[in-house]
Design a protein that fits this description.
Elements: E1 2-8, E2 11-18, E3 21-25, E4 27-31, H1 43-48, E5 54-57, H2 58-63, H3 67-72, H4 76-80, E6 86-89, H5 92-98, E7 102-104, E8 109-112, E9 119-122, H6 124-134, E10 138-140, H7 152-176, E11 188-193, H8 199-210, E12 216-219, H9 228-238, E13 248-250, H10 256-263, E14 269-271, H11 274-280, E15 283-286, E16 289-292, H12 312-316, H13 319-327, H14 331-357, H15 361-372
Parallel strand pairs: 4-5, 4-14, 5-6, 6-10, 10-11, 11-12, 12-13, 13-14
Antiparallel strand pairs: 1-2, 2-3, 7-8, 8-9, 15-16
Helix pairs in contact: 6-7, 7-8, 8-9, 11-14, 13-14, 14-15
Pathway: tRNA modification; tRNA-queuosine biosynthesis
GO molecular function, one term: tRNA-guanosine(34) queuine transglycosylase activity
Protein name: Queuine tRNA-ribosyltransferase
Amino acid sequence: MYKLLKKCGKIRRGEFTTPHGVIQTPVFMNVGTLAAIKGAVSTVDLRKIGCQVELSNTYHLHLRPGDEVIKKLGGIHKFMNWDRPILTDSGGFQVFSLSKMRNIKEEGVYFNSHIDGRKIFMGPEESMRIQSNLASTIAMAFDECIPNPSPKDYVERSVERTTRWLARCKAELDRLNKLPDTINKQQMLFGINQGGTYDDLRIKHAKEIASMDLDGYAIGGLAVGETHDEMYRIIDAVVPNLPQDKPIYLMGVGLPSNILEAVDRGVDFFDCVLPARNGRHGHVFTKNGKINLMNAKYELDSKPIDDKCNCPTCRNYSRAYIRHLFKAKEMLAMRLCVLHNLYFYNNMMQEIRNAIDGDYFKEYKEQKLNDWNGRA
């Protein structure tokens, strides 16, 4: 259940009650695709850095170790020792992005595993069964992720198929939640809005899925090559046409500046691999923008990554030391930078919530964008 605590223009501050706890929104979900954060960050670490929601992936966990294995071990929460909410992505994006050989049919998608090439079929029912076996808090509907740009007639047909798939997802999850051996009988379902960069298709689809009374709604198919202005235009078009008493999730976004702009447009949920991926390569976020610790100028820099940051990395280690670890190819370098970046994102979301609560979000946003000066 989503409870709107405050609204300032389009900006929303809420609480989303789930079977695994209450999520304070706006929120950034920390991405652990294979039930682990890349960069040697544990669930114990996630608790310490303020993570509210962890995100894992249906497709990848279906391949390794197998959703049936995870079910036998008590579900993904027990498997990875995480008692807070988990959202599982449906696998749709991976099916369409990782598999070069795929065949889209009304029943679903036939494709080859990116690991060993074996043939796999996944449709709405299969995605729901896998996610039910995983027993995540929130299951995402199986949709078709459309390449951008795509011809409008193809996008229109694809969106219509995604709507039909959503109805099948809902029916199947309702059935699964009633089975005696289902681990999480309160598993929630979010539908996904598609439509490329065509405003009219996006709005039409938003209205169609809004009528289906889901637990939440996502905006998919963005941050895949379009400009930031195009993305903001689509958000502006879609958000008013989604239920305002349900959480709204912008999938795969993104940069700190993108998050601020999307919060200003009424978005509640975010996720992105960017902070962890950047951290693994020595790119870290600070109050003044992003810096690259591999640069020679940090060789003798005894300051922390960010002197205003209270993360475990900044409290204990210098830029020079972390740079040395990268040069020496020590795994600790990645761990320290990923920890810092995820803390930066989680802490930024807390600051955003505080700013909304205190009626100064617009000032906060302007100050942050000026501080980052476009470099974040």
